[in-house]
User: Fold this.
Amino acid sequence: MIHGSYRVRDAVASDLPAILSINAEGVPGVSALAPRDAAALLVAATLLRVAEQGDEAIAYVIVFASHTSYDGEEFQWFRRRTGAFLYVDQVAVARLARGRGVASALYMDVEAAACRRGLPPPRIRRGGSPRDSRRAACLPHGEKASRRPAAIITGWRYRD
Assistant:
Protein backbone atom coordinates (compact mmCIF):
# COMPACT_ATOMS: atom_id res chain seq x y z
CA MET A 1 0.00 0.00 0.00
CA ILE A 2 1.50 3.37 -1.02
CA HIS A 3 0.98 6.52 1.10
CA GLY A 4 2.59 9.70 -0.18
CA SER A 5 6.36 9.23 -0.26
CA TYR A 6 6.37 5.92 1.62
CA ARG A 7 4.81 2.49 1.23
CA VAL A 8 3.63 -0.12 3.74
CA ARG A 9 4.56 -3.78 3.32
CA ASP A 10 5.21 -6.99 5.26
CA ALA A 11 8.44 -6.92 7.25
CA VAL A 12 11.26 -9.27 6.25
CA ALA A 13 14.40 -10.39 8.06
CA SER A 14 16.49 -7.60 6.51
CA ASP A 15 14.18 -5.06 8.23
CA LEU A 16 15.09 -6.26 11.73
CA PRO A 17 18.02 -3.85 12.31
CA ALA A 18 15.80 -0.89 11.38
CA ILE A 19 12.92 -2.21 13.52
CA LEU A 20 15.28 -2.52 16.50
CA SER A 21 16.62 1.01 15.93
CA ILE A 22 13.10 2.50 15.63
CA ASN A 23 12.05 0.53 18.71
CA ALA A 24 14.98 1.91 20.73
CA GLU A 25 13.99 5.47 19.74
CA GLY A 26 10.41 4.76 20.85
CA VAL A 27 11.14 3.48 24.37
CA PRO A 28 9.47 4.10 26.86
CA GLY A 29 6.39 4.60 24.66
CA VAL A 30 6.86 1.03 23.42
CA SER A 31 8.43 -1.96 25.15
CA ALA A 32 12.07 -2.55 24.27
CA LEU A 33 12.73 -5.44 21.90
CA ALA A 34 15.79 -7.66 22.11
CA PRO A 35 17.20 -8.89 18.77
CA ARG A 36 15.94 -12.46 19.39
CA ASP A 37 12.45 -11.09 20.22
CA ALA A 38 12.33 -9.09 17.00
CA ALA A 39 13.37 -12.12 14.94
CA ALA A 40 10.69 -14.24 16.61
CA LEU A 41 8.04 -11.67 15.67
CA LEU A 42 8.54 -12.44 11.98
CA VAL A 43 6.97 -15.83 12.71
CA ALA A 44 4.77 -15.18 15.75
CA ALA A 45 2.99 -11.92 14.85
CA THR A 46 -0.20 -12.06 12.83
CA LEU A 47 1.03 -8.91 11.09
CA LEU A 48 4.45 -7.29 11.23
CA ARG A 49 4.34 -4.41 8.78
CA VAL A 50 6.82 -1.65 8.01
CA ALA A 51 6.46 1.71 6.34
CA GLU A 52 9.44 2.40 4.12
CA GLN A 53 10.74 5.45 2.35
CA GLY A 54 13.06 4.55 -0.47
CA ASP A 55 14.71 1.36 0.75
CA GLU A 56 14.62 2.32 4.44
CA ALA A 57 12.08 1.21 7.04
CA ILE A 58 10.85 4.29 8.93
CA ALA A 59 8.10 2.75 11.08
CA TYR A 60 6.60 -0.59 12.09
CA VAL A 61 3.45 -2.10 13.58
CA ILE A 62 3.13 -5.42 15.43
CA VAL A 63 -0.31 -7.06 15.48
CA PHE A 64 -1.59 -10.29 17.07
CA ALA A 65 -4.93 -12.02 16.40
CA SER A 66 -6.77 -13.50 19.39
CA HIS A 67 -5.83 -17.07 18.43
CA THR A 68 -2.09 -16.26 18.49
CA SER A 69 0.19 -17.67 21.17
CA TYR A 70 1.38 -14.48 22.85
CA ASP A 71 1.85 -13.67 26.54
CA GLY A 72 1.58 -9.85 26.59
CA GLU A 73 -0.32 -8.54 29.63
CA GLU A 74 -2.90 -6.46 27.75
CA PHE A 75 -3.33 -9.16 25.08
CA GLN A 76 -4.06 -11.78 27.77
CA TRP A 77 -6.53 -9.43 29.44
CA PHE A 78 -8.56 -9.28 26.23
CA ARG A 79 -8.19 -13.00 25.59
CA ARG A 80 -9.78 -13.78 28.97
CA ARG A 81 -12.74 -11.48 28.28
CA THR A 82 -13.59 -11.78 24.60
CA GLY A 83 -13.81 -13.84 21.46
CA ALA A 84 -12.06 -12.92 18.23
CA PHE A 85 -10.07 -9.69 18.23
CA LEU A 86 -7.08 -8.06 16.61
CA TYR A 87 -4.54 -6.53 19.00
CA VAL A 88 -2.04 -3.82 18.05
CA ASP A 89 0.93 -4.47 20.33
CA GLN A 90 3.30 -1.74 19.10
CA VAL A 91 3.42 1.09 16.60
CA ALA A 92 6.68 3.02 16.42
CA VAL A 93 7.98 5.65 14.01
CA ALA A 94 11.59 6.72 13.52
CA ARG A 95 12.25 10.08 15.16
CA LEU A 96 13.00 11.81 11.83
CA ALA A 97 9.75 10.53 10.26
CA ARG A 98 7.37 11.59 13.05
CA GLY A 99 4.57 14.04 12.40
CA ARG A 100 4.09 13.03 8.75
CA GLY A 101 1.12 10.66 9.12
CA VAL A 102 3.17 7.46 9.02
CA ALA A 103 1.55 5.94 12.14
CA SER A 104 -1.91 6.78 10.78
CA ALA A 105 -1.01 5.04 7.53
CA LEU A 106 0.06 1.95 9.50
CA TYR A 107 -3.25 1.92 11.39
CA MET A 108 -5.15 2.21 8.10
CA ASP A 109 -3.06 -0.60 6.66
CA VAL A 110 -3.85 -2.83 9.65
CA GLU A 111 -7.56 -2.13 9.19
CA ALA A 112 -7.33 -3.06 5.50
CA ALA A 113 -5.35 -6.21 6.31
CA ALA A 114 -7.92 -7.17 8.94
CA CYS A 115 -10.69 -6.77 6.38
CA ARG A 116 -8.80 -8.88 3.79
CA ARG A 117 -8.26 -11.65 6.37
CA GLY A 118 -11.80 -11.55 7.76
CA LEU A 119 -10.58 -10.34 11.17
CA PRO A 120 -12.20 -7.67 13.32
CA PRO A 121 -10.38 -4.33 13.07
CA PRO A 122 -8.43 -2.96 16.03
CA ARG A 123 -9.33 0.18 17.91
CA ILE A 124 -6.89 2.02 20.13
CA ARG A 125 -7.42 5.11 22.25
CA ARG A 126 -4.47 7.13 23.44
CA GLY A 127 -4.83 9.92 25.95
CA GLY A 128 -8.62 9.68 25.83
CA SER A 129 -8.83 10.55 22.12
CA PRO A 130 -10.34 7.67 20.11
CA ARG A 131 -8.75 6.68 16.83
CA ASP A 132 -11.78 6.14 14.64
CA SER A 133 -11.73 2.71 13.01
CA ARG A 134 -14.53 3.84 10.69
CA ARG A 135 -16.05 0.36 11.03
CA ALA A 136 -19.75 0.53 11.91
CA ALA A 137 -19.83 -3.26 12.27
CA CYS A 138 -17.78 -3.06 15.46
CA LEU A 139 -18.83 -2.74 19.08
CA PRO A 140 -16.64 -1.82 22.06
CA HIS A 141 -15.60 -4.89 23.98
CA GLY A 142 -13.60 -3.58 26.92
CA GLU A 143 -10.77 -1.40 28.05
CA LYS A 144 -7.54 -2.21 29.82
CA ALA A 145 -5.40 0.53 31.29
CA SER A 146 -1.81 0.18 30.15
CA ARG A 147 1.44 0.78 32.02
CA ARG A 148 2.51 2.93 29.06
CA PRO A 149 1.92 6.64 29.67
CA ALA A 150 -1.55 7.94 28.64
CA ALA A 151 -2.61 4.74 26.89
CA ILE A 152 -5.87 2.84 27.07
CA ILE A 153 -6.17 -0.17 24.80
CA THR A 154 -9.70 -0.90 23.67
CA GLY A 155 -10.71 -4.24 22.18
CA TRP A 156 -13.40 -4.52 19.55
CA ARG A 157 -15.36 -7.45 18.19
CA TYR A 158 -17.82 -7.93 15.38
CA ARG A 159 -21.49 -7.30 16.15
CA ASP A 160 -23.23 -10.63 16.77
